[in-house]
Amino acid sequence: MQPARWYYLEGREQRGPMPLADIRARVLDATLQPDTYVWADGMPSWLPVRQVPALTPPPELRAGLDAWR
């Protein structure tokens, strides 16, 4: 089984596919904000990053990210 392919919306443009590690890195470097919509293989619909546990930074990292305060 292949790993899930992740996508995100930039304005009205869909970006991806990319692996989970790449999308997580974009969350941590603030390229993707908590309200950026993402989707991966197997998800029923697009969701904001803040609602996807696999992408939500742990509390100790969120404290240092302006968008997550």
Round the Cα radius of gyration to an integer and report it. 12 Å
Q: How many strands, which pairing sense, and closed or not: the largest β-sheet?
A: 4 strands, antiparallel
Order of helices and strands: EEHEEH
What is the strand content? Answer: 15-25%
- Taken from the alpha-carbon principal axes, the silhouette is globular
Main sheet strand line-up: 2-1-3-4
Tell me roughly what share of residues is in helical segments.
10-25%
- Point out poorly predicted stretches: none
Helices, by number, come to 2
> Can you count the beta strands?
4
| N-to-C span | 37 Å
Q: Average pLDDT, to the nearest integer?
A: 93
Question: How many independent structural domains?
Answer: 1
What structural class do the secondary elements suggest? alpha+beta
Task: Give a quick summary of the entry.
This protein is of the alpha+beta class.
